[in-house]
Specification:
single chain; alpha+beta; nine-stranded antiparallel beta sheet; about 20% strand; elongated
Length: about 300
C-alpha cells in the first residue's frame, strides 16, 4: 500500500468518525434541543418589549455554531462539540426564522414591536397585553399598531388619523407617528408625513442644501419653510418660503410644493417647484429645478 493510499484511508476514517459523531449527537439531542430552542424562541418573540432580543439570541447561536465546528477539529473535544453543534444549529435556524419574521413577515413594523405570533394571532396579542408588565404608553402603542394593520388600506388610514389626532400626550402621539413612518405601506408612511407636518404647524423647517449648481447654493443658503396650515383630510399645505407664500400637497407618492424664490442677484421673483420624498431618520429629500437650468438637491428634517 502506497503512502497516498494510507492518507486516503485515514481521511475516510476521519470523515466516517465525524459522520458517526454527528449521527450519534443528533439522535441523542435533536428532540430535546429542538424543544428547548423552540420554547426559548417563542418566548423571545412573545415577550414584548423584549422581542428584539431574538436578534441577540441569533448572534449567540451563530457564534456557538462556529465555535463548535472549530472544536470538532480537535479529537479530545469532539464528544461535547458534536452535541453543541446540533444544539446551536437548531437554535440558529429557529432564531433566524424569528428574526426574519419580525422584520419581513408583518406590516408597519409590527413584528419588530410585538413579535410575529402576536402580530398575526389576535388572541395572542390580547394575552400578551394582559400578561406582560407593559406601561400605559407601551400598551397604547401596541393597540395602535393592531388598529392600523388589521383592516383594509382605507380603514387603516382612517383609524390611524383618528387615533393620532385624538391622542393628547405629545410623546405618545410622536411614537404613533414614528410607527406609521416605519410602515411598509406607503399610504401609511405619507399619512405619517402629513401628521408630522401638522405637529410642526407654526414652526419653521430648515431647508438644507446637499448639492447645487454653481452659485445657486448661496442663493438658497439659510432658506426655511414656515408651515402655516396642514389639512389632513385633503393633504393641502399652506407654507411660507423665505417670507413668500406658497402651497403644496401631501400625496401618496410624494410631497409637491409650489413656491416662489426671490433671486438675490437679479431681484426677480422666480416660480419654483419642489418635490420631496420621505427617507430614513425622518428626512424629506428632493430636487429643485428652475427654468434657467439651476438646480439643487435639498433635505428637510421633519423632527
Amino acid at each position: 500500500m502506497t503512502s497516498s493510499d494510507v492518507g486516503a484511508a485515514a481521511g475516510r476514517s476521519r470523515v466516517g468518525k465525524l459522520r458517526g459523531l454527528f449521527a450519534k449527537s443528533g439522535s441523542r439531542g435533536f428532540g430535546m434541543w429542538s424543544v428547548i430552542t423552540l420554547i426559548a424562541g417563542t418566548a423571545s418573540d412573545f415577550a414584548e418589549p423584549l422581542a428584539p432580543v431574538a436578534t441577540n439570541f441569533l448572534v449567540v447561536a451563530i457564534l456557538c455554531l462556529l465555535f463548535s465546528l472549530a472544536a470538532m477539529l480537535q479529537p479530545r473535544w469532539r464528544g461535547w462539540a458534536g452535541t453543541t453543534t446540533v444544539f446551536s444549529g437548531i437554535a440558529t435556524v429557529i432564531f433566524g426564522m424569528i428574526v426574519i419574521g419580525q422584520n419581513y413577515w408583518t406590516v408597519a413594523g409590527e413584528g419588530r414591536q410585538r413579535g410575529v405570533i402576536a402580530a398575526h394571532v389576535d388572541p395572542v396579542a390580547s394575552l400578551q397585553m394582559r400578561v406582560l408588565p407593559l406601561t400605559e404608553d407601551q400598551e397604547a402603542l401596541l393597540e395602535f399598531t393592531s388598529a392600523v394593520t388589521t383592516g383594509s388600506s382605507t380603514q387603516n388610514l382612517v383609524a390611524a388619523r383618528d387615533l393620532v389626532t385624538e391622542t393628547r400626550d405629545d410623546l405618545l402621539r410622536r411614537g404613533m407617528i414614528e410607527t406609521l413612518y416605519e410602515a411598509d405601506d406607503e399610504s401609511l408612511r405619507y399619512l405619517s408625513v402629513a401628521l408630522a407636518l401638522r405637529e410642526r404647524q407654526g414652526d419653521e423647517l430648515q431647508v438644507i442644501v446637499q448639492d447645487a449648481s454653481p452659485g445657486f447654493e448661496r442663493t438658497l443658503f439659510g432658506s426655511t419653510l414656515y408651515l402655516s396650515r396642514v389639512e389632513l383630510a385633503t393633504g393641502d399645505l399652506r407654507v411660507n418660503f423665505n417670507r413668500r407664500n406658497g402651497q403644496g400637497t401631501v400625496g401618496r407618492n410624494q410631497i409637491n410644493l409650489r413656491l416662489e424664490l426671490r433671486d438675490g442677484d437679479l431681484g426677480d421673483i422666480v416660480p419654483m417647484e419642489l418635490q420631496l420624498v420621505p427617507q430614513d431618520d425622518f428626512r424629506l429629500t428632493g430636487r429643485v429645478e428652475l427654468a434657467d437650468g439651476r438646480w439643487a438637491d435639498v433635505e428637510v428634517p421633519l423632527f
